[in-house]
Amino acid sequence: MTDSQDKNTPVDLRASDADRERVADRLREAAVDGRITMHELEDRLGTAYTAMTHAELRPLTRDLAASDADASASAPTKRELASSTPARWRRSIVVMSGLDRRGRWVVPARFSVFAFWGGVTLDLREASLTAPETVIRADAVMAGVEIIVPDDVAVLVEGVGFMGAFDEAPSTAPPPPGAPVIRITGIAFWAGIAVKRTPTFTPKRRRDELTT
Fold first, then answer.
1. Alpha carbon distances (Å) from 211 to 156, 204, 207, 208
2. pLDDT tens digits for 25-69?
3. pTM surpassing 0.85?
4. How far is CA 81 from the centre of its chain?
5. Which of 4, 55, 72, 168 has the most crowded Cβ, counting Cβ within 10 A?
6. Could you tell me if 130 and 187 lie in one domain?
7. Which of 53, 83, 113 is the endpoint of a domain?
Protein backbone atom coordinates (compact mmCIF):
# COMPACT_ATOMS: atom_id res chain seq x y z
CA MET A 1 0.00 0.00 0.00
CA THR A 2 1.54 3.34 -1.02
CA ASP A 3 1.94 6.48 1.05
CA SER A 4 -0.46 8.37 -1.18
CA GLN A 5 -3.14 5.79 -0.56
CA ASP A 6 -2.52 6.00 3.19
CA LYS A 7 -2.97 9.78 3.08
CA ASN A 8 -6.06 9.69 0.91
CA THR A 9 -7.90 7.05 2.91
CA PRO A 10 -9.03 8.29 6.34
CA VAL A 11 -7.86 5.51 8.64
CA ASP A 12 -10.03 6.81 11.48
CA LEU A 13 -13.20 6.35 9.39
CA ARG A 14 -15.64 4.01 11.12
CA ALA A 15 -15.81 0.55 9.54
CA SER A 16 -19.14 -0.88 8.38
CA ASP A 17 -20.35 -4.48 8.37
CA ALA A 18 -19.59 -4.58 4.62
CA ASP A 19 -16.00 -3.41 5.26
CA ARG A 20 -15.47 -6.14 7.85
CA GLU A 21 -16.93 -8.82 5.58
CA ARG A 22 -14.70 -7.77 2.65
CA VAL A 23 -11.62 -8.19 4.84
CA ALA A 24 -12.90 -11.51 6.23
CA ASP A 25 -13.50 -12.79 2.68
CA ARG A 26 -9.95 -11.83 1.72
CA LEU A 27 -8.53 -13.62 4.76
CA ARG A 28 -10.48 -16.81 4.02
CA GLU A 29 -9.20 -16.81 0.45
CA ALA A 30 -5.63 -16.34 1.70
CA ALA A 31 -6.01 -19.31 4.08
CA VAL A 32 -7.38 -21.55 1.34
CA ASP A 33 -4.48 -20.50 -0.92
CA GLY A 34 -1.98 -21.29 1.86
CA ARG A 35 -0.70 -17.72 2.24
CA ILE A 36 -1.66 -17.55 5.91
CA THR A 37 -2.00 -20.38 8.41
CA MET A 38 -5.25 -21.41 10.04
CA HIS A 39 -3.98 -20.03 13.34
CA GLU A 40 -3.39 -16.68 11.63
CA LEU A 41 -6.84 -16.87 10.08
CA GLU A 42 -8.37 -17.46 13.51
CA ASP A 43 -6.57 -14.46 15.03
CA ARG A 44 -7.24 -12.12 12.12
CA LEU A 45 -10.91 -13.03 11.78
CA GLY A 46 -11.42 -12.31 15.46
CA THR A 47 -9.83 -8.89 15.01
CA ALA A 48 -11.73 -8.17 11.78
CA TYR A 49 -15.15 -8.87 13.26
CA THR A 50 -14.51 -6.61 16.27
CA ALA A 51 -12.76 -3.80 14.37
CA MET A 52 -14.34 -0.37 14.73
CA THR A 53 -12.24 1.65 12.23
CA HIS A 54 -10.36 1.21 8.97
CA ALA A 55 -7.12 1.68 10.90
CA GLU A 56 -7.82 -1.62 12.67
CA LEU A 57 -8.73 -3.41 9.43
CA ARG A 58 -5.79 -2.18 7.35
CA PRO A 59 -2.99 -4.28 8.99
CA LEU A 60 -4.96 -7.51 8.58
CA THR A 61 -4.41 -7.64 4.81
CA ARG A 62 -1.26 -5.51 4.51
CA ASP A 63 1.02 -8.52 3.92
CA LEU A 64 -1.26 -10.01 1.25
CA ALA A 65 -1.43 -9.06 -2.43
CA ALA A 66 -1.36 -5.25 -2.65
CA SER A 67 -4.30 -4.88 -5.01
CA ASP A 68 -6.49 -7.17 -2.92
CA ALA A 69 -5.47 -5.54 0.34
CA ASP A 70 -6.23 -2.09 -1.02
CA ALA A 71 -9.65 -3.22 -2.24
CA SER A 72 -10.59 -4.93 1.01
CA ALA A 73 -9.40 -2.22 3.41
CA SER A 74 -10.48 0.86 1.48
CA ALA A 75 -13.75 2.65 2.06
CA PRO A 76 -16.55 1.46 -0.27
CA THR A 77 -17.57 3.68 -3.15
CA LYS A 78 -21.09 5.01 -3.56
CA ARG A 79 -21.70 2.44 -6.28
CA GLU A 80 -20.54 -0.41 -3.99
CA LEU A 81 -22.75 0.84 -1.19
CA ALA A 82 -25.76 1.00 -3.48
CA SER A 83 -25.20 -2.52 -4.79
CA SER A 84 -24.59 -4.03 -1.35
CA THR A 85 -27.44 -2.39 0.53
CA PRO A 86 -30.16 -4.94 -0.33
CA ALA A 87 -27.99 -7.85 0.88
CA ARG A 88 -26.07 -6.58 3.91
CA TRP A 89 -24.46 -9.20 6.07
CA ARG A 90 -25.72 -9.88 9.57
CA ARG A 91 -23.32 -11.72 11.82
CA SER A 92 -23.01 -13.48 15.15
CA ILE A 93 -19.78 -14.17 17.06
CA VAL A 94 -19.63 -17.06 19.53
CA VAL A 95 -16.53 -17.33 21.75
CA MET A 96 -16.54 -20.01 24.46
CA SER A 97 -20.32 -19.81 24.53
CA GLY A 98 -23.33 -20.92 22.52
CA LEU A 99 -25.92 -19.71 20.05
CA ASP A 100 -29.28 -21.42 19.57
CA ARG A 101 -31.74 -20.02 17.01
CA ARG A 102 -34.96 -22.01 16.77
CA GLY A 103 -38.62 -21.49 16.18
CA ARG A 104 -39.91 -18.49 14.27
CA TRP A 105 -37.11 -16.10 13.40
CA VAL A 106 -36.23 -13.97 10.38
CA VAL A 107 -33.20 -15.09 8.39
CA PRO A 108 -31.45 -12.27 6.50
CA ALA A 109 -30.30 -12.85 2.94
CA ARG A 110 -26.69 -12.88 4.15
CA PHE A 111 -25.88 -14.30 7.58
CA SER A 112 -22.48 -15.23 9.02
CA VAL A 113 -21.47 -16.86 12.28
CA PHE A 114 -17.96 -17.21 13.72
CA ALA A 115 -17.67 -19.84 16.45
CA PHE A 116 -14.56 -20.39 18.60
CA TRP A 117 -14.73 -22.99 21.36
CA GLY A 118 -18.50 -22.84 21.22
CA GLY A 119 -21.62 -24.49 19.90
CA VAL A 120 -24.11 -23.12 17.38
CA THR A 121 -27.51 -24.43 16.29
CA LEU A 122 -29.42 -22.75 13.47
CA ASP A 123 -32.83 -24.35 12.97
CA LEU A 124 -34.47 -23.04 9.79
CA ARG A 125 -37.58 -25.24 9.76
CA GLU A 126 -39.87 -22.50 11.07
CA ALA A 127 -37.72 -19.56 10.03
CA SER A 128 -38.80 -16.90 7.53
CA LEU A 129 -36.40 -16.54 4.59
CA THR A 130 -36.17 -12.99 3.24
CA ALA A 131 -34.66 -13.74 -0.19
CA PRO A 132 -34.91 -16.37 -2.94
CA GLU A 133 -31.28 -17.30 -2.13
CA THR A 134 -29.94 -17.21 1.42
CA VAL A 135 -26.20 -17.39 2.07
CA ILE A 136 -25.06 -18.69 5.47
CA ARG A 137 -21.35 -18.47 6.15
CA ALA A 138 -20.18 -20.58 9.09
CA ASP A 139 -16.56 -20.32 10.25
CA ALA A 140 -15.76 -22.65 13.15
CA VAL A 141 -12.53 -23.09 15.11
CA MET A 142 -12.56 -25.96 17.61
CA ALA A 143 -16.34 -25.61 17.68
CA GLY A 144 -19.49 -27.32 16.51
CA VAL A 145 -22.14 -25.86 14.22
CA GLU A 146 -25.43 -27.59 13.39
CA ILE A 147 -27.66 -26.20 10.65
CA ILE A 148 -31.10 -27.79 10.33
CA VAL A 149 -32.90 -27.14 7.05
CA PRO A 150 -36.38 -28.19 5.95
CA ASP A 151 -36.82 -30.65 3.12
CA ASP A 152 -38.67 -28.18 0.87
CA VAL A 153 -35.63 -25.99 0.07
CA ALA A 154 -32.61 -26.49 -2.19
CA VAL A 155 -29.33 -26.67 -0.25
CA LEU A 156 -25.82 -26.08 -1.60
CA VAL A 157 -22.93 -26.87 0.77
CA GLU A 158 -19.63 -25.30 -0.32
CA GLY A 159 -17.57 -25.19 2.89
CA VAL A 160 -13.94 -26.21 3.32
CA GLY A 161 -12.60 -28.36 6.17
CA PHE A 162 -9.05 -28.24 7.61
CA MET A 163 -8.73 -31.06 10.13
CA GLY A 164 -12.48 -30.63 10.31
CA ALA A 165 -15.47 -31.37 8.13
CA PHE A 166 -18.69 -30.15 6.58
CA ASP A 167 -21.16 -33.03 6.86
CA GLU A 168 -24.30 -32.89 4.75
CA ALA A 169 -27.20 -35.26 5.20
CA PRO A 170 -28.62 -36.39 1.85
CA SER A 171 -32.02 -35.16 0.79
CA THR A 172 -34.83 -37.71 0.94
CA ALA A 173 -36.66 -36.05 -1.96
CA PRO A 174 -35.92 -33.31 -4.50
CA PRO A 175 -37.18 -29.84 -3.55
CA PRO A 176 -40.23 -28.53 -5.40
CA PRO A 177 -39.71 -26.34 -8.49
CA GLY A 178 -38.89 -22.74 -7.58
CA ALA A 179 -37.93 -23.67 -4.00
CA PRO A 180 -35.77 -21.20 -2.04
CA VAL A 181 -32.02 -21.84 -2.14
CA ILE A 182 -29.83 -21.98 0.97
CA ARG A 183 -26.12 -21.76 0.21
CA ILE A 184 -23.83 -22.77 3.10
CA THR A 185 -20.15 -21.91 3.00
CA GLY A 186 -17.25 -21.25 5.36
CA ILE A 187 -14.24 -22.94 6.95
CA ALA A 188 -14.14 -25.67 9.62
CA PHE A 189 -10.79 -25.85 11.45
CA TRP A 190 -10.62 -28.62 14.04
CA ALA A 191 -14.37 -28.30 13.98
CA GLY A 192 -17.50 -29.95 12.69
CA ILE A 193 -20.25 -28.25 10.71
CA ALA A 194 -23.25 -30.50 10.18
CA VAL A 195 -26.08 -29.74 7.77
CA LYS A 196 -29.17 -31.80 8.58
CA ARG A 197 -32.32 -32.10 6.51
CA THR A 198 -35.60 -32.81 8.28
CA PRO A 199 -39.27 -32.54 7.30
CA THR A 200 -40.82 -29.10 7.49
CA PHE A 201 -42.64 -28.40 10.73
CA THR A 202 -46.39 -28.92 10.81
CA PRO A 203 -48.62 -28.15 13.81
CA LYS A 204 -48.88 -31.90 14.54
CA ARG A 205 -45.10 -32.46 14.31
CA ARG A 206 -44.50 -29.50 16.63
CA ARG A 207 -46.90 -30.93 19.23
CA ASP A 208 -45.25 -34.34 18.93
CA GLU A 209 -41.74 -32.91 19.46
CA LEU A 210 -42.82 -30.81 22.42
CA THR A 211 -44.38 -33.81 24.15
CA THR A 212 -41.48 -36.24 23.62
1. 33, 11, 6, 5
2. 888 788 777 788 877 887 888 888 888 999 999 999 999 865 443
3. no
4. 19
5. 72
6. yes
7. 83
